[in-house]
Each structure stands twice: as C-alpha cells, then as structure tokens.
Amino acid sequence: MKKNAPNQFVSFKNNLNSVQQKGSLALKRVIFLLLFSLSIVHISAQSRNTVTPNVLDVNSYIASLKVNSSSNLKTKSNISTAQYVENLVFGIQPAVYYQSGIIKNYGENPVKLFTDVSSIKSMINDNFSRENIEIVVIKIDNTFDVNSKIDLLNFANLSKLKYIYILSTVNTTDAVVANMFLNYANQYGIFYKIQFSE
Questions:
Q1: Could you tell me the residue range of the domain that residue 6 belongs to?
Q2: Are 138 and 158 contacting, i.e. CB atoms less than 8 angstroms apart?
Q3: Which residues contact 144 (CB under 8 A, 6 or more apart)?
Q4: What is the pLDDT of residue 75?
Q5: What is the pLDDT of residue 51?
Q6: In 10 A of CB 61, how many CB atoms?
Q7: Which of 25, 40, 94, 155 is within CB 3.0–4.6 Å of 110 for a Cys-Cys bond?
Q8: What is the C-alpha to C-alpha distance for residues 184 and 171, in angstroms, rounded to an integer?
C-alpha cells in the first residue's frame, strides 16, 4: 500500500501565506489605530484654539464701538462703552507696571497693567494688586515678540479684565496680532497700536 505523504512544501507555503496575511492584517490594524490616534490629537489641539480674535487697531476698535453705541449698554455713570474704552486707553489711570518680576504701582486700585511678552508667564505667581485690572497693555519691542504666543489662560486670575492692548514698536498687522493669541474664547476685546520709537 502506498502512503500518501503530505506535500510538506505546499503545507509550508500555505502556513507562510497564512502568517503573512495575519501579519498584514495586524500591520493594517496598527496603522489604522496610529492614524486614528493622530487625528484625535490633531482635532483636540485645534479645538483648544478654534476662535481667532477679531483684532483692530485701537482707533478702529473705538470707532466700531461708537457705531454700535446705540445698542451698547451704558457703563460707569452713563458713559458710553466707546468713551469708557477711550478713557481707559488714553487717559491717566491707576496702573501696575510689571516687567521681569519687578512690580511698580502707581495709584490706588490700579485698572491698567503694563507688561511685556516675556513677563506674562511669570506674573501669575507674583503678588500685585490685580482685583481691578480692566486692561492689559503689552509692549512689543522686536520681531521675536511679534512671533511669540500669548496664552490668554495666563490672565484668568484677572477677574475684571476686559481688554488687551498691544503697543508695538514693530510694524505689524491685524492678522499677525490675532495669531499671537492662544485659548481665545471671545472673552476680551483685543486691539493694537504701532508706535515707532522716536
């Protein structure tokens, strides 16, 4: 009687194909999971900064408030919002100057905070009168500052903050200033002025 010897070569080839198919399927699953994970990370990163602020130069910002003044509520003794912002920006107000950890107070209950881009993160931990701050004036002196990012979460402990004013000695545009901000959620009015050194 003749024994049928299994064809070991065919059996090996079938096993090899089976292993390759399983490996290929596993590789496809890994690639799919990797792409899926990366897309979730990308989407969550975008969702943290989905709103780009509408930034205008200071005069245009105040003019836009004047146009809308008929629909705006009156603030502080029936002064229109436009007049109030104009006084806050250009008027003499009690202020805090914060730069590189050095704090200088001028007046009681300051409503203005003057700082620069490099000092913003460190001011979170320093002790200064912040209860009444309504406007932060951020000085920009060079192109490095213009390309910096300002995380608005750094201002979360300024409970009365309404406006952020960029005062730049470097030529810039609305779009460039708008791109400086992270975590914007329509919580502040943001405007700027280019003021070249004399």
A1: 1-48
A2: no
A3: none
A4: 47
A5: 81
A6: 22
A7: 94
A8: 23
67 and 5 both lie in a single domain: no
What's the pLDDT at 12? Answer: 54
Cα angle: 20, vertex 21, 22; to 5 degrees = 90
Same domain, yes or no, for 132 and 167?
yes
Cα dist from 47 to 23, 178, 183, whole Å: 36, 17, 9
CA distances from 115 to 3, 104, 137, 139 (A): 93, 11, 6, 6
Shared domain check, 108 and 77: yes
Low-confidence ranges of the chain (pLDDT < 70): 1-23, 25, 30, 32-50, 69-79, 197-198
Alpha helices (H) in 74-194, listed in sequence order: 81-90, 143-146, 174-178
The tokens describing 164, both together, are 């952020």
Instruction: Specify which residues 103 forms β-bridges with.
Output: 98
- pLDDT tens-digit series, residues 88-133: 999 999 999 999 888 999 999 999 999 999 999 888 777 788 899 9
Q: How many structural domains comprise the chain?
A: 2
| Whether residue 120 is found in the same domain as residue 39 | no
Residues 164 and 69 in one domain: yes
Domain shared by 15 and 87, yes or no = no
Per the listing, tokens 């490996």 go with 23
pTM listed for this prediction: 0.70
Give the per-residue pLDDT at 44.
Answer: 47
Structure tokens at 20: 């390759």
Q: Are residues 168 and 144 in the same domain?
A: yes
